[in-house]
Amino acid sequence: MSPDPRSLAERISAETGLEFSGREGRDSDGTRWLELQPVGYPSGQTFTLRTLVGWRRLDVHFRPGNFAGDLMSAMGSADETGRRTFRAVLDVCRDADAEIVLNINGTAYLPDDSAIWETEWRSFGLGVRRGMLAINDGNPEEDMRQIELWTSRVAAAILALLPVEIEDDDGAEVSPEITGLPEGARTRVEVNRYERDRRNRAAALAIHGYSCKACKLDMGDRYGPTAAGLIEVHHVTPVSQLGEDYIVDPRTDLTPLCPNCHSVAHRRSPPYSIDDLREMLASVHEND
Ligand SMILES: [Zn+2]
Ligand SMILES: [Zn+2]
């Protein structure tokens, strides 16, 4: 199977909570690209994420529509969580040897330049390019993995700046009750607002990947495409220890957990740590 735009769109939609459609094409020089666009907006007013699949390199570009002025200006006035998340994700890209091209109102900036927030954004472009990759090398699965990884990073950086609403306490993102337990033992995964903020979720997954940090399970590997991208994001620091204005760092504060491990972590308050979970798993296997 060659990397296909539909499965890429599904993955990024699952990660960001924004629905994307995918298409593909080729540049005039024959370089293949995959392109994602949010569903339900006029093309001119929204944006595309295009991933060029070159020889041993990937190039992911954010492109606003021609009439996306309002969107640009909203992105430039993102809140502090959005700004820091944007930077955290791009820092991770840079640390992974990517070249980052950030352009605001026609001027090139470094992502950590605070001057970018001091101006009204009329135009904004972002490109993340990673060379020296084992891609287009005859291994379509590895190609897809790299395409998903780099596209999801740029998507997470962009999502951080988009105006998004956070689900309230009864929001749909709270995991449903765990079934199969005696009535009195039923429990509920109490996710907190940091885990519900989809910007945090997208950034955490773009940074940490989709495997459970406790048991290493990748739901897509176990169940196939239906479960691809099905992973939960857990906040490792007990929320009670944080102030009201605390801003999450997706690199250190958030971690992906499979639904099982996440439920077990929240069997206690404050939750069990990732190390606790690993010990539980190891001690059970010792007795096998
Ligand atoms: Zn797990
Ligand atoms: Zn949690």
Unreliable residue runs? 166-189
Number of strands: 9
The shape is globular
Bound molecules: zinc ion
Total domain modules: 2
| Major β-sheet annotation | 7 strands, antiparallel
- Indicate the radius of gyration in whole angstroms: 20 Å
For the terminal residues, how far apart are their CA atoms?
38 Å
Mean pLDDT: 87
Helix content: 25-40%
Reading the helices and strands in chain order gives HEEEEHHEEEHHHHEEHH
Question: Hey, roughly how much beta strand do the residues contain?
Answer: 15-25%
**Total number of helices:** 9
What's the arrangement of strands in the largest beta sheet? 1-2-3-4-7-5-6
Helical/strand content category: alpha+beta
Structural features:
two-stranded antiparallel ribbon; alpha+beta; binds zinc ion; 288 residues; 19% strand
Characterization of this structure:
The two termini are 38 Å apart. With 288 residues, the chain is α+β, with helices and mostly antiparallel strands. The chain has two domains: 5-161, no CATH class; 183-286. It is globular, with a radius of gyration of 20 Å. The strands form two sheets. A seven-stranded antiparallel beta sheet has the order 1-2-3-4-7-5-6, with helices on one face. A two-stranded antiparallel ribbon has the order 8-9. It is built from nine helices and nine strands. Helix 1 runs parallel beside helix 4, helix 3 runs antiparallel to helix 4 (140-161) and helix 3 packs parallel to helix 6. It has helices at 5-16, 69-76, 80-95, 140-161, 193-196, 198-208, 219-223, 259-265, 274-286; strands at residues 20-26, 32-38, 47-54, 57-64, 99-104, 107-109, 124-130, 232-235, 254-257. The model is unreliable at 166-189 (pLDDT under 50). Bound molecules: zinc ion (ZN) (2 copies).
